[in-house]
Design goal:
- The protein has four helices and no strands.
- It is mainly α.
- The chain has one domain.
- It starts with a helix and ends with a helix.
- The mean pLDDT is about 90.
Length: about 90
C-alpha cells in the first residue's frame, strides 16, 4: 500500500473515531463534525508523522522523476545527440 493511501486512511480513521466519540454528546451535528475535523487534524499531526513524512518523500521522488523525464523529452525534441544516442544503445 502506498504511503499516501496509508496516510489518507489514517486521517479518515481518526476522524471517524473522534466523531463516534462525540456521538453521545448533545450538540448540533454540524458542530460535532467541525470539532471532530479540528481535533482529528491536530491529533494526526503527532500520531501520523511517520506516514506523512513517507508520503512527502514519495511525492518528492515522483516529482524528481517527472522533472528528469521532462528534461529528457525536451532534449530529445530539441534534437540533442545525447537523447538520440542513448535511445539507440
Amino acid at each position: 500500500m502506498s504511503a499516501a493511501a496509508k496516510y489518507t486512511l489514517g486521517r479518515v480513521g481518526l476522524f471517524v473515531v473522534v466523531v463516534l466519540a462525540l456521538w453521545p454528546v448533545q450538540m448540533n451535528l454540524f458542530l460535532k463534525l467541525m470539532v471532530a475535523l479540528a481535533f482529528s487534524a491536530a491529533v494526526s499531526f503527532f500520531l501520523l508523522r511517520g506516514w506523512r513524512d513517507q508520503m512527502a518523500q514519495q511525492l518528492a521522488s515522483a516529482a524528481e522523476r517527472r522533472k528528469a523525464e521532462k528534461e529528457r523529452l525536451r532534449s530529445a525534441l530539441a534534437g540533442d545527440d545525447e537523447a538520440g544516442s542513448s535511445k539507440d544503445a
